[in-house]
Amino acid sequence: MKKELKLKTLEEVRIYSDPYRIQIMNEFQNFNRPATIKEVADALQEVPAKVYYHAKKLESIGMLQLVDTKLINGITAKYYEPFKGQVIINKSGADEKIQQVFQSETEKLISNLYDENKKRFLQVSTTGRPKGNLTNTNVYLTEQEVEALFVMINEFCEQHDKSSGEDDRERFEMFFTLFTMRKQSPNKKNHLLHNRNDGSYVYSCSIAPACSSSV
Fold it and tell me: Looking at the whole model, is its pTM more than 0.70?
């Protein structure tokens, strides 16, 4: 069963919507194994203290988890693993003013995720032999078909989220977006996240958040 992580407060949403923290999550994902904050700091070319501060914030909301410790040259090295599963942003029960702030912070989070993935896609496009695909089209689906599509994508990602090291497979990142184009009333926005019946939003985080975003 796919894990779920619920962000219930504005503070939790704000912690994760920070662009630098999204970069940190990406680097943890890139290691494809538990990694130390020092390793991630080196990959980002940052001082460990700066990364440590933001990593602890991510750990406080469950986006990073301490999974192992090792004694290396008298120093305890802590190994963290990034969360993989469905991230649920739940704004139900809040008054209208708080819901508006929730909406703003949610849109900020999604905007930052889009910006990060766009930046990496454009970086790859400037390499000698880029491998990438960008598709923009319309499809006509029932609610059941939409749910089935996301189940299929998530299961496919889970089956291919680790390299065996014994074949010629390459690492690819996927950022998938699907959203409804149905007409809505003027005061209702077309959300970039899957808006569930209980008033919460969902997106799936399985590769470097590497994320496949649900709509």
Answer: no
